[in-house]
Amino acid sequence: MQKVCSPYFDPEFDSLSERINGPTCRVSIDNDSLEDCTVVKIDSVNKQGLLLEVVQVLTDVNLTITKGYISSDAGWFMDVFHVKDDGGNKLTDQKVINYIQQGIGAKSPITTSNVKTLTPNLHESSHPAGPTAIEMTGTDRPGLFSEISAALADLHCNVVEAHAWSHNARLACVVYISVDDSPINGHHLAAIEHHLTTVLRATAASKEGGTTNRQEAKTAAGLPEGTTTVVERRLHQLLVSVRDFDGPTTPMMTWRQEADEDDQRNMCHVWVDSCDEKGYSIVTIKCRDRKRLMFDTVCTLTDMQYVIFHASVDTHQGYALQEYFIRHVDGRALNTESEKERVIKCLEAAIERRVSEGIRLELCANNRVGLLSDITRVLRESGLIVVRADIATQGEKAMNAFYVRDISGNTIDVEFLEVIKREIEPIHLAFKNEPLLMTPPSSPGRSRFSISDMFKCQIERFSHNFVTIKGGSFDKKVENN
User: CA–CA separation, 68 vs 89, rounded Å?
Assistant: First the structure.
């Protein structure tokens, strides 16, 4: 009998490099260096999109990034972030700390099951196959989200989770649905997609004489299960696909205008410079600070196929300054004015999409088929426009959050909301006029760190003692621009 031999593979061979050279990713959580925030340090082998992965993990657990210093030259990635929790305090929850340490540099993607105990607005599927994701884009119109909700109710679809953004007369929506707590077969799914597409195309058909731009109305199934930031990234991509950045933008302001002007809350400024000696393009963003701002900007640059080599993020008295040193994935800088203009427009749109002015309505009720349709119908009949929506389920309860505006542009008073509250009983309704942008500063403060100044000195300082760096040009730039 012939003897067959096969080569031996050491099962620990894959970890040999790590055992010799140390781990490929080190995450440090430091609560001792600073009094008012936690310092998160990451040292890792670099790869495309790693910065977005890090920011996504921090955003998933609702941390606010007040400062950030990033460098990824020579194949190594070094990050330092100053973060605070939802209450503005240091990070002390050990579950959150463990999630950050395990999530950054993880070999497998973080999914809902990994983080559902930390972010309660995520759904938990009631059947093994999980809910079906349908994504929609179209030309927005008053009442469109209500029409979509009614269409899903007519098709006996239970909305497990939904997220919708409206910006520059465009709507993007991602909905997770189930039917009788069982997987949806292909025939039924095709009928759902056809019905929703008909609803979405109604506006385009009336405006274009019966023709519909393919990018303005589409549905698609199969968005993979993930955390909230996975869906939010997809919403950014969907709105870019229908070119919401080309629409009539929100009035933007320069930093020379007075702080008491009516449109000051919308102040944002983005521009692109060149760093010829290093071959980078420098993207600078100055705007009002808000939650998830860095995620939105890093997500946009990454999806536009730009690599962020160095960056600094700073916040001061309600303002944010972000600087990114970037190249395209093919190694070139931004050479043409049209390319620079597109980057500027896309970043401005990404910043504006999440800024929902108006009233935030929070509703809680036992989940059932048609619940979302009933709620949005009442809002539509009351003359309110939904500009953003986040719907989730927790057990048998449906948690709904809507940002609404009056269709005529009038101020929504409390008495009017009380009438709506009585009309939708027994659904619990809470409301608040929640400013998503922070209060303007009364006067400029002391100067802050800027990556542009650091590049003029020594780029090596990225790898040493980030926490103790002081000085810079944050307020100088505010005054000079």
Answer: 17
